[in-house]
Design a protein that fits this description.
Protein name: RNA polymerase sigma factor
Keywords: Sigma factor, Transcription, Transcription regulation
Number of domains: 2
Structural class: mainly alpha
Family: Belongs to the sigma-70 factor family. ECF subfamily.
Distance between the termini: 69 Å
Number of helices: 9
Order of helices and strands: HHHHHHHHH
Domain RNA polymerase sigma factor 70 region 4 type: 115-165
Shape: elongated
CATH class of the largest domain: Mainly Alpha
Strand content: under 5%
Largest sheet: none
Pfam families: Sigma70_r2 (PF04542), Sigma70_r4_2 (PF08281)
Radius of gyration: 28 Å
CATH topology of the largest domain: Rna Polymerase Sigma Factor, Chain: A
Number of strands: 0
Length: 182
């Protein structure tokens, strides 16, 4: 290790450890993270002489290394279940299927149709406001421009439209039974 790098290590070792400990909240993980950080610093030791603010540079390396580890952990846990070594299940069976099931598709289509039918019972101004906001996903400002009213009016209409739609949905016994659990 270079003399300059050794001085950086001596000066900032405790700081980096405490930062790692603050990020991980676990001494073992903090030590692992700190080791990864110093490995990266050693890998880029040629750049140390050019760095003006060593502490900021080390902090950035530490934060980025922590984020990378976190993302890797999340990605790994998303695609593989934690399993005992002796489990006789093919690994592909543990990969989640991100496609929605046929039942879920049908249920979603039925709910969409049901809400659209109930929206048709609203006054045109409320129906149009809901449509612009939720279906077309316009902002309040865009809706205000389209409808030639103030943003406050759009907010009021949106509030009233949602309340009225809720009333209509809850007044239909078949909808209540389908949507709310018994």
């Amino acid at each position: 290790m270079d003399v300059k790098l050794e001085g950086v290590y001596e000066e900032y070792n405790r700081y980096i450890y405490h930062l790692c400990l603050k990020l991980t909240r676990n001494t073992a993980e903090a030590e692992d993270l700190m080791q990864e950080v110093w490995v990266k610093v050693v890998r880029y030791e040629d750049n140390v002489a050019e760095v003006e603010h060593i502490k900021a540079w080390l902090t950035t390396i530490t934060m980025n290394t922590f984020r990378d580890r976190y993302r890797k952990t999340v990605r790994r846990s998303k695609y593989m279940m934690h399993q005992p070594e002796t489990l006789d299940v093919p690994i592909l069976d543990l990969v989640p299927n991100n496609e929605i099931s046929t039942e879920e598709k049908i249920e979603k289509e039925l709910m969409t149709k049901l809400v659209q039918d109930k929206m048709a019972q609203l006054d045109a101004i409320y129906r149009k406001t809901l449509w612009y906001f939720y279906i077309d996903q316009y902002s309040l400002a865009e809706i205000s421009t389209l409808m030639k009213v103030s943003i406050g009016t759009v907010k009021s209409r949106l509030f009233r439209a949602k309340a009225r739609l809720k009333e209509i949905l809850l007044s239909d016994k078949s909808v209540v039974d389908a949507v709310l659990p018994a």
